[in-house]
Specification:
mainly alpha; globular; 10 helices
Length: 276
């Protein structure tokens, strides 16, 4: 018998995974973003300075937005781009945990929640993505529009650059610590690597899928994360080294990326309304 044609449906298991992950993300976001000075008492390890804590919290906020969108979506292709970045993010955090095991507060419930999440999530999300990806018809549906190739190449190039930063943070944390605009440890450098892997793979995912509808949800989630990181930078500006050019490069690059996402979104929404 020939396999059934893809229906673009979201499997029940995919929704269950999203529903199970969201509560962990909500708790972590609240702790890291609103109580960044209390991580020694509330989190899996003492995460310093507050900029590193709030940046990780910002990534969790984007994850909350994305997985809530997974629960609300009706078509697989609208959420598919977000799964490979989540797999990479969780995998890198799991590896960072193993490499820096001694830095964690092993007798705290937050640590066991952290370890349980990042030692299982990469495999669960990967299997979920692998099963559900068969439902993607791959074609441009009626009412959708294609992202122009040149624009997808630009987004993909930005993604590659971001992934390069992610790789350097993970494999050579000492070198990146010397360049970074605020104080990092080898552990927080590798945590930052996971956070840079997210937008990097989002960029590549958008570059490889021409459908505007496939990019919308993950772009919204990324914009939320970036906006919260910029707000965190304003709150923690005293932790930045003003003499380090990377400080303005970091803030300016994120601000430019946020404006670029906004303009990209507005332009593509206009093209969709015009049917072009």
């Amino acid at each position: 018998m020939e396999p059934a044609p893809p229906t673009d449906r979201i499997l029940a298991a995919t929704r269950w995974v999203a529903a199970l992950v969201i509560p962990f993300l909500v708790v972590a976001f609240i702790i890291l973003y609103f109580a960044p000075t209390q991580t020694a008492a509330l989190f899996a390890w003492k995460l310093q300075p507050t900029m590193s804590a709030m940046m990780l919290g910002s990534a969790y906020a984007g994850g909350i937005y994305f997985f809530t969108g997974v629960l609300a979506a009706s078509q697989w292709h609208r959420i598919k781009v977000g799964f490979p970045p989540v797999i990479a993010f969780a995998s890198l955090l799991g590896l960072a945990t193993l490499l820096h095991w001694d830095r964690f507060t092993h007798d705290h419930i937050s640590f066991w929640a952290w370890a349980g999440l990042y030692f299982t999530t990469p495999f669960i999300v990967f299997i979920t993505w692998l099963r559900n990806r068969r439902e993607d018809p791959g074609a441009l549906a009626a009412g959708d529009v294609a992202i122009p190739r040149a624009l997808r190449w630009l987004v993909g190039t930005i993604g590659i650059v971001t992934l390069l930063i992610s790789v350097l943070l993970f494999v050579s944390p000492e070198r990146m610590i010397a360049l970074w605009p605020w104080t990092l440890s080898p552990l927080t450098a590798r945590v930052a690597s996971a956070m840079f892997a997210l937008p990097g793979l989002v960029g590549l995912g958008i570059a490889l899928d021409q459908r505007w509808s496939a990019a919308q949800l993950i772009l919204q989630a990324q914009a939320l994360s970036i906006a919260l990181i910029l707000l965190a930078a304003w709150r923690a500006w005293g932790e930045f080294d003003p003499a380090n050019p990377a400080a303005l490069l970091f803030v300016g690059g994120l601000a430019g990326l946020l404006v670029g996402i906004f303009l990209f979104y507005v332009w593509m929404a206009a093209r969709r309304r015009a049917g072009t």
